[in-house]
Design a protein that fits this description.
alpha/beta; Rossmann fold; 2 domains; 14 helices; 9 strands; globular
């Protein structure tokens, strides 16, 4: 099948390359053409001029976009994916709200299948084809597109119904952002007592409290400036804002999530928006001065 890929950011670029490397016929579209051209030069992928053209040239389109607004821009309008005449399966793999997934399904042509299949994992996991894919569909619906998922990730969990992938991704990310905040607090507590940062992190990493994301993000926590940004504070705040709205709509209390969101909003307002989420450690250090 011919596969379209829209959204070639930190995660999407790796994912598109992996699809091409796995032997799929991939066509690219990105808002800034430079990224499409770089990947095309490296892989031989074709480039579409608009989202509509992408959907005209392919059977399945994968989007890896930052938020609901970006997704609306790509899917809707006269040059949007929904105007394409060929692709009849659209897979949204970014972190979106469940309401947005439902709105996409309602706006899509009647014969088009919309699958929310957000991914969990770092940029390195994207590069290494080790993402976890949380698919808002049944195993039967996923079967025809499973070769695409297998080119991108280490595991696919089919959650049975549309929108469930989006919900589960928000639940997972709320835990990740909570761990990020708690790590910052634990580290600043140890440092205040005179324990060197690297020794404190060694102790946390060796303990039962260590989550996998702490291990692979260690370089960023210990020397943020020397490492590339992988996931910004702004995106973390977006995740928690969407999660908070979902929790309220379901009547679910998330008191720790509320604190995490408050801290992310404050960090964003104090100039941390475009820094890596690991910078919350430096934010807490500043708060404690």
């Amino acid at each position: 099948m011919r596969v379209g890929f829209a959204g070639l950011g930190r995660m999407g670029g790796h994912m598109a390359r992996n699809l091409a490397t796995a032997g799929h016929n991939v066509t690219l579209w990105n808002r800034s053409t430079e990224k499409s051209e770089l990947i095309s030069q490296a892989t031989g992928c074709d480039i579409a001029t608009t989202p509509k053209a992408l959907a005209d040239l392919t059977d399945v389109v994968i989007t890896m976009l930052s938020d609901d607004e970006a997704s609306d821009t790509v899917h809707l309008g006269p040059e949007g994916l929904f105007e394409g005449k060929r692709a009849r399966v659209l897979i949204e793999m970014g972190t979106m709200s469940p309401d947005h997934v439902s709105a996409l399904a309602n706006a899509a042509p009647a014969d088009m299948v919309i699958v929310d299949a957000p991914v969990s994992g770092s940029t390195q996991a994207a590069a290494d084809r080790k993402l976890l894919i949380l698919a808002g569909c049944t195993v039967r619906t996923a079967a025809p597109i499973m070769p695409l998922f297998e080119a991108l990730g280490r595991e696919v969990i089919c959650l049975g119904k549309q929108g469930a992938g989006a919900v589960m991704k928000l639940a997972v990310n709320s835990l990740i952002h909570g761990i990020n905040q708690n790590l910052a607090e634990a580290m600043t507590l140890a440092e205040a007592a005179g324990i060197p940062s690297d020794v404190a992190f060694d102790s946390i990493e060796a303990s039962a409290a260590c989550a996998p994301m702490l291990k692979y993000r260690r370089p960023l926590y210990l020397d943020e400036a020397a490492n590339e940004v992988t996931f910004t504070v702004s995106l973390a705040r977006k995740d928690m804002s969407v999660t908070s709205a979902l929790a309220k709509s379901l009547g679910v209390a998330m008191p720790q999530g509320d604190v995490t969101l408050e801290k992310l909003r404050d960090a964003e307002a104090k100039g941390f928006a475009n820094r890596d989420m690991a910078s919350i450690l430096n934010y807490m250090r500043e708060e404690n001065q």
